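Q: Structure tokens for this one, please.
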Amino acid sequence: MIEDRNKLIEDLKNRENELKGREQEIRKKAEEVQIETEKQFSEKAVEIEERAVRLEREKNEMKQREYEKKLEDQKKLIDELKKKAELGSQQLQGEVQELALEEFLTSNFPIDIISEVKKGERGADAVHIVRNNLLQECGKIIYESKRTKAFSDSWIVKVKDDQKLQQADIAVIVTETMPKDMDRFGLRQGVWVCSFSEIKGLSIVLREMLIKTQSVRIVQENKGEKKDMLYNYLTSNEFVQQIEAIVEGFTGLLGDLQKEKNAMERIWSTREKQIRKVLINTSSMYGSIRGISGNVIGSIKALELPEGEQDEL
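A: Here is the predicted structure, written as tokens:
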């Protein structure tokens, strides 16, 4: 009875310890889940905050440039600036974006040629001549800047005409208001359409594409020329002379090797005769001494006949 009670008590204690262990494990997992949740929440909060800051920065970038433009024009033409500010001139807004676009292209592609089309002249707002690291021209991109409340399809026709006029490879419209059926940059009737914030990435991709295309074009153009150069080299006296020089070099090496081999064989033959002469003289001297002294001198196995041959003698 007492043993059963003790066993029961021991089982209860074991279960209690087991429950405590599980409770600690559950508490530990709960703490880990809480820490991970707080970490994810913190990371998400930072991400949201960074995104909000970035969006706000991009939103304010154009306003800041517009303010700087207004301030600059104010020093030159105060009266004209006041009039434009009161009317909310779209022309002023367009000029600000044009300047911002030219500044971005100039600062990010210093080896390229960036030029603007003057007011009154036919053509796009900015012309971008792409050059590779060797300063070779790889293509041309034209940019048309638009900052109005509505997108017009007539811009496409105008930019394509400018593209033909300036013999450009790519045409881009940078607009504040995208077409209704486009929520991000893309091709529209062969013309790239994007916002000012998107041009920062799109211009890099388009430039790299022109450079790669030019390198492939050069390789294709030079294929026939390289084949002719290779054929002329293989049939030239220079190639024949180089092959002859290589063969002569190997022939000389083989000759030197054979000479060394013949010399070593002569040395080995001479040494072999000398060694045999020493052995014969040594054996003769040993035989003479052995014949005079009899068995007083011990035998030398190397100079004795094998046992079978001695018995026969």
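A few notes: The first strand starts at residue 113 and ends at 116. The beta strands are 113-116, 126-131, 137-146, 170-175, 186-188, 191-194.
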